[in-house]
Design brief:
With about 170 residues, this protein is α+β, with helices and mostly antiparallel strands. It contains 6 helices and 7 strands. Strands 1-2-3-4-5-7-6 form a 7-stranded mixed β-sheet, sandwiched between helices. The structure holds coenzyme A (COA).
C-alpha cells in the first residue's frame, strides 16, 4: 500500500531521505553535498514550501515539492524573461512553483505521480501555479500535467521546454 504525506516544511534529514530517489530519477548533481548546497537548503526555506512524499512500507517511492515563486529568485526572473510580457504580468510572481516530481521506476504507472501532484497542489492559497517541463507532448510528465488541467503558457527556459500554468483551487483570474 502507498502512503502519501504532505508537509509544509522540511529539514536537512528530509533532504537526506529524498536525495537517493532524486538522484536515481534526475542524476543532475554529483553528490548529496552539492545538491544540498545548490538546491535543497535554498529551496526548503522559501515561503510557501510544501513537500509531498509517497512511501511503500518504509521505502520512499515518490516525492514532489514546490514553493512560492518571487521576483529575485532565479527561475521566476528567467520565466518572466521568456514568457510573452502580457502572460508574465498575469502569471509570474506570487505563484506556486511546482519545482520537482519524481517517482521510482519500480513504482511508476500505478497512479503515484498523479496523487503526488494532486496532494501537493490541493487547497494551496496561491491563485496561480506554474511549472516547467519538456515540450514533448508524449512525455509521461507532460501527459500527467495535461490531464491535471495544466496548460502551456509559452516556451520554457532552455531548449525543448515549456512553462505550464494552472489556476489554484477556487481561484478566478481577473
Ligand atoms: C512523470 C512521473 C512522475 C509520472 O509518475 P507515475 O507514478 O508513473 O504517473 P501515474 O502512474 O500517476 O500516471 C499519471 C499519468 O501520467 C501519464 N503517464 C504516466 N506514465 C506514462 C507513460 N509511460 N507514457 C505516457 N504517459 C504516461 C499518463 O497520463 C498517466 O495517466 P493515465 O494512467 O490515466 O494514462 C514519472 O514518470 C517520473 O518520475 N518521471 C521522471 C521524472 C520526471 O520526468 N519528472 C517531471 C519533471 S518536469
Amino acid at each position: 500500500m502507498t502512503r502519501l504525506r504532505v508537509d509544509d516544511s522540511a529539514s536537512v534529514p528530509d533532504g537526506v531521505e529524498v536525495w537517493p530517489l532524486y538522484d536515481a530519477v534526475f542524476a543532475d548533481h554529483p553528490d548529496l553535498a552539492s545538491w544540498r548546497e545548490g538546491v535543497w537548503d535554498r529551496h526548503r526555506v522559501r515561503d510557501g514550501f510544501r513537500l509531498a512524499r509517497a512511501h511503500r512500507d518504509d521505502e520512499l517511492v515518490g516525492f514532489a515539492y514546490g514553493y512560492t515563486g518571487e521576483p529575485g529568485q532565479w527561475w521566476t526572473d528567467q520565466a518572466r524573461g521568456v514568457l510573452p510580457p502580457e502572460v508574465a504580468d498575469r502569471w509570474v510572481g506570487g505563484h506556486f512553483e511546482l519545482v520537482s516530481v519524481g517517482v521510482a521506476s519500480s513504482a511508476r504507472g500505478c497512479g503515484v505521480g498523479r496523487e503526488l501532484v494532486r496532494s501537493l497542489c490541493r487547497d494551496l492559497p496561491h491563485e496561480r501555479l506554474l511549472l516547467m517541463t519538456t515540450a514533448d507532448p508524449a512525455d509521461p510528465a507532460r501527459r500527467l500535467y495535461d490531464s491535471e488541467g495544466w496548460r502551456v503558457l509559452g516556451r520554457g527556459i532552455g531548449s525543448a521546454t515549456v512553462i505550464m500554468g494552472r489556476l489554484g483551487d477556487g481561484a478566478v483570474l481577473s
